[in-house]
Amino acid sequence: MKRVLITGAAGFLGSHLCDRFIKDGYHVIAMDNLITGRLKNIEHLFPLEHFEFYNHDVSKFIHIPGELDYILHFASPASPIDYLKIPIQTLKVGSLGIHNCLGLAKAKGARLIIASTSEVYGDPTVHPQTEDYWGNVNPVGPRGVYDEAKRFQEAITMAYHNFHGVETRIVRIFNTYGPRMRLNDGRVLPAFIGQALRGEDLTVFGDGSQTRSFCYVDDLVEGIVRLLMSDYPYPVNVGNPSEITISQFAEEIIALTGTTQKVIYKDLPVDDPKQRQPDITKARAILNWEPKIDRSEGLKRTYAYFQSLSKEELLETDHYNFDKYITK
Ligand code: UDP
To answer: Which domains, from first to last, does the chain contain?
Structure first.
């Protein structure tokens, strides 16, 4: 039986990856320090014989007994609000954390895939974004802690690949949505759906003309698995090219939820990218992959998940206690 380590396993993407590898017959070793991840996302896996969980911070030395075939490094805060609240942890998990994962991969002879991001392109001047575009990133802006950590993560991963011969893969993930997104992580989809469910107005930042391209989580997971199993060590965009303005997106959420609330406009956050759309030519060619679930279907499934949450969960605005984790 193949053994896989997933860091960030209790998070949105990590938990879906745990489900996928369990389904595919792997022994899954899940790791998370639960700053932004939630055990609720993976508690259904705890009774399984081939699932184990380590409550551990990957930016500290990682010890895993036994063999390892694959490592998926998905630990990281991943929303602009989180970067503002926990900037140092964001930098550490993308630098010290990946260093530990690469050392572990080298020691075990495991293949490693890192979760990179469309944020490596910053506020892009090339549209749609191809993998050979180097980006337009402000290193000292509010997103810099995430963007630069992820860029460093790609650099150190390539260095371990080239210098130590570690088998590595790099997926550049574009905006993804689906069940288990944290309602209060500040991302646009949970923000809008949460607002609709609580009977609040929907907050569009700026004039709403900025664009994003949203990929349903099952499509993303399929792309990640295909890339991991491929022999391609360079970055590959995985996302859904269907692009939409944030204003249009708000209208879609209003139609989906049937809310009678209106859209209100707030200031645009600093360095908020004006447009974002993946060029997935490479993923199509190398992985024979493209998204299958369109936004209307994906949004229906996601809304059903949010509707199933309790009233307490819906009203919770800040479920996690950062203070005890923050190391200066
Ligand atoms: N956004 C918004 N209202 C919200 C939350 C986000 O208009 O309540 C905007 C945000 O400014 C950005 C887009 O929606 O332009 C996507 O934001 P998100 O935080 O989901 O991800 P990003 O792609 O910016 O990392």
So the answer is: 3-176+215-238 (3.40.50.720), 179-213+242-273+294-325 (3.90.25.10)
